[in-house]
Structures are given as C-alpha cells and as structure tokens.
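Dear H.,

Thanks for agreeing to be a second pair of eyes. The structure we're designing against is below in token form, covering all 260 positions.
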C-alpha cells in the first residue's frame, strides 16, 4: 500500500485542464482536413483514387469535397495531392449535430446546434451513456473508454458510462452495425427511457467505414436510429469525442468555436 501511495505522490496531478486549455495531441495526430481550392489543379483523379473509402470527391458542380464522416484519416489523399490542396490540420474539433456538416468543402452552414432546451436541461449537468459495440474492431471502443482514465476524468463533467440501458440517457454506438448486432442495438435503444440521445462515434458508426456497402452491415447507425451527434475519426481521438459531448450539452461557453 505504501508503495502505491508514494508512486501516486511521485506522479502528481495528471488530469488535463481541458477544455480551459488546448489538449496535448501526439505528433502523428491528423485532425480536421483543410481543402485549399486556390491550390487545386483541377485534376484530382490521383487524389480521389487514393481514398480507400470514397470519402474524397470532385466534380464540376461541387468541386473538391471531403466527407469526414467516411474518412479514415489515413492521409493517403494528402500524400497523393501533388498540388498540396489537401492537408490535415491538428484541429481535434470534428463533431457535428448534422450529417451534412461533416462534409468539408460543402456550403452547409456550420452553426452552433445544441440539443433542444428541454433535453439540454435534463442532460446538461448529468449524462449517462450506454456504449454499444455494434461490430466494431474495438479501436473506437477503447478510445471512448480512455475518457474514464485520470488524464481525462470524464466524471468531472458529470458524464459516465453505465452498464444498463435502463440507467442510461442515451447510447454511444461504435461499429458499422453488423446484421448480427442490428436486433441487439434496436432492443438496447428501446430499453433506454425517453427522452434519449444517440451518438455515432467513428467512421464505421457514421457511414460504415471500410465495410460500407457490405451486405452484412447496415452502413452505420443512422439508417436505424435518429442520431444526435456524429463524431468522425478512425478511431476518434478521446479529445474529439469529449469536445463533441461537451459541445452538445452547451458546456463550452468559453470557446468561440463549438460543435459545428
């Protein structure tokens, strides 16, 4: 016992000061993509073809667009773009209430869009989530549960993961929703008392990820349940998910840029 106490004292206070301070992100982190229309040469076949999931598109009507809901953030498109029109910034703020707002380069208005006042009043200070792994590879699941560690300390925001859907205010869904998990997901959703929310975390849960179009998946949760928050990434960084949750609940008043 004494050894554990001394080690704890040696380590000191390790919980980050997010969101008051910007998070410390790893050097290899690839955040919100940036498209430079002025640098685009107009010949995007190599860039578009490099994307393994068809997240990057280019046509005469819409120009170059990147769907972060489908993006795996592998960086292949940026490497293939000789003109340097595609870059990945270090901006971890990727979550959005509307599916259309995840498309970089679209004309969709990225305005603040929180939960309605009634539901926000219920969940704003205390939110309980049941996590459902609907056929995921466990990467999104692992990074979601990292929020329970002392570095992030999710509980200080009044947000917790619970074991039973009957004790939950909503679901956090990961994975492309395999056919084997379809029924289980729907039954879990039914067990959550109303009003309730649904969060799609990761490319698979949003749009099927690399399994998009496979007959054994449902291409994400959006085709089955109403989604209140989309959190892109493969997997989403814990700070991306945390920022999305706090923005959804209106807990980022000090920030100029909230959930888009």
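And this is the sequence the design step returned. I haven't edited it by hand at all.
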């Amino acid at each position: 016992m004494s050894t554990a106490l001394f080690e704890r004292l040696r380590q000191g206070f390790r919980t980050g000061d997010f969101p008051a301070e910007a998070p410390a992100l790893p050097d290899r982190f690839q955040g919100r993509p940036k498209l430079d229309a002025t640098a685009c040469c107009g010949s995007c076949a190599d860039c578009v073809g490099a994307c393994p999931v068809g997240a990057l598109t280019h046509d005469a009507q819409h120009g170059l667009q990147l769907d972060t809901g489908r993006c795996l953030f592998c960086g292949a498109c940026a490497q293939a773009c000789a003109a340097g029109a595609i870059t990945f910034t270090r901006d971890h703020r990727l979550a959005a209430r509307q599916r259309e707002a995840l498309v970089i380069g679209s004309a969709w208005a990225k305005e603040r869009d929180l939960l309605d006042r009634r539901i926000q009043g219920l969940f704003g200070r205390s939110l309980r989530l049941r996590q459902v792994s609907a056929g995921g590879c466990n990467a999104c699941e692992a990074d979601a549960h990292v929020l329970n560690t002392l570095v992030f300390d999710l509980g200080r925001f009044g947000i917790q993961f619970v074991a039973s859907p009957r004790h939950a205010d909503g679901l956090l869904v990961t994975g492309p929703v395999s056919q084997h998990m379809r029924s289980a997901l729907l039954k879990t959703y039914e067990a959550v008392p109303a009003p309730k929310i649904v969060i799609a975390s990761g490319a698979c849960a949003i749009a099927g990820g690399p399994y998009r179009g496979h007959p054994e998946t449902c291409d994400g949760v959006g085709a089955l349940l109403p989604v209140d928050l989309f959190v892109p990434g493969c997997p989403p960084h814990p700070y991306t998910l945390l920022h999305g949750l706090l923005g959804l609940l209106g807990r980022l008043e000090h920030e100029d840029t909230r959930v888009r």
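Two observations from my side: The longest strand covers residues 127-133. The radius of gyration is 19 Å.

Warmly,
E.
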